[in-house]
Automatic annotation (TrEMBL):
This is Taurine ABC transporter substrate-binding protein. The keyword Signal applies. Residues 25-242 form the Solute-binding protein family 3/N-terminal domain. Keywords: Signal. The gene is tauA. It is found in: Periplasm. Its main location: periplasm. Pfam families: NMT1 (PF09084). InterPro entries: Peri-bd_TauA, Solute-binding_3/MltF_N, SsuA/THI5. Belongs to the bacterial solute-binding protein SsuA/TauA family. Residues 1-22 form the signal peptide. The keyword Signal applies.
């Protein structure tokens, strides 16, 4: 069963009733994207602020996080805007409550040296790997549309980041649109054809986000307020001195350990995204993000990746906890 089908199966099941944070803590799903909040995670700042034990579970893709959230195993998860659009379109009772980054050069389409790909038209007939229903999948499809390259004439393979790195090493694929740590591995013997920073300028921006099950959010508003506050503080530290933050050996080592990236990759990639302040997020987590999710969902439907659309994506986005943290 493919991961999109797995997500559909979970969403079609009855949504498991949530509970308050138990004595044994709360399980939170994170991914390997490079961002400043990994420092706060490594330092235990979330546990200190909430007063709760947090069981951090690493996942390789947003589709896997969505499946875990839908099953009831995980109440909070880190995903991209494309998996959010797909899950919301299928009716998963979740809300986006925080943005961890406006994605830029930290996600990129890399083509292998010697693959014969020097321009977008050369992608026809080539094997390009990407995790399905991820932000990179959406960005790849949007890039092909921008370049007027028929996606049906490109062999797009559904692989997880670790599988992409292995397939690249074997020489099985010609290119990949992916994030760290796989991005660093493929870029070592390839060249960047485009990045999500450029695709965003073409009208298809993508975001890294935190989502929460609605039932958990209703029972644990203070936990989420503190979670938001911790993230906002580390983003503020970064934005005051991006170069200093990215060159700090301790910060870099903590992020590298959690993401599996090399220290030099962390230093290079941290400036690749934008990390909005909480004040900026309060505005972003209204109509701008609702529109972005709706536009993403409509594009995915046009590509046959989701079956139907919601009349509105407003219920899937909230700035409630950001506003509480700002107060």
């Amino acid at each position: 069963m493919t991961r999109p089908a797995l997500v559909s199966l979970f969403v079609s099941l009855a949504f498991v009733a949530g509970t308050a944070v138990a004595d044994d803590g709360v399980t939170i799903a994170f991914q390997t994207g490079v961002d400043p909040s990994k420092v706060a995670q490594a330092d235990g700042d979330y546990e200190k602020a909430t007063g709760k034990k947090i069981n951090w579970r690493k996942f390789e893709s947003g589709a896997e996080v969505i499946a875990a959230v839908a099953s009831g195993d995980v109440p909070i998860g880190n995903i991209g805007s494309s998996p959010l659009a797909a899950a919301a379109s299928r009716g998963l009772p979740i809300q986006t409550f925080l943005v961890t980054g406006v994605i830029g050069e930290s996600e990129a389409l890399v083509v292998r040296n010697g693959s014969g790909i020097s321009k977008p038209a050369d992608l026809v007939g080539k094997k390009i790997a990407v995790p399905y229903v991820s932000t990179t999948h959406y960005s790849l499809l949007a890039a092909l549309k921008h370049w007027k390259v028929d996606a049906g004439k490109v062999t797009i393979l559904n692989l997880r980041p670790s599988e992409i790195a292995a397939a690249w090493q074997r020489g099985d694929i010609d290119g990949a649109y992916v994030w760290e740590p796989a991005l660093g591995k493929v870029r070592a013997s390839g060249k960047v054809l485009t990045s999500s920073a450029e695709v965003g300028k073409w009208g298809a921006p993508t975001y890294d986000l935190w989502i929460v099950r609605q039932d958990f959010a209703a029972r644990n508003p203070d936990f989420l307020k503190q979670f938001v506050s911790v993230t906002g503080k580390v983003f503020e530290r970064y934005n005051k001195d991006p170069k200093g933050f990215a060159s700090n050996a301790a910060n870099v080592a903590k992020i590298a350990r959690l993401t599996g990236s090399k220290p030099e990759e962390v230093t290079a990639l941290l400036p690749g995204n934008i990390y909005p302040s909480l004040a900026e997020q309060s505005k972003l987590l209204q109509q701008p993000l609702v529109k972005a999710v709706g536009d993403t969902a409509a594009f995915l439907k046009s590509q046959g990746k989701v079956d139907s659309l919601q009349p509105s994506y407003t219920p899937y986005v909230t700035n409630q906890f950001i506003n509480a943290a700002l107060r």
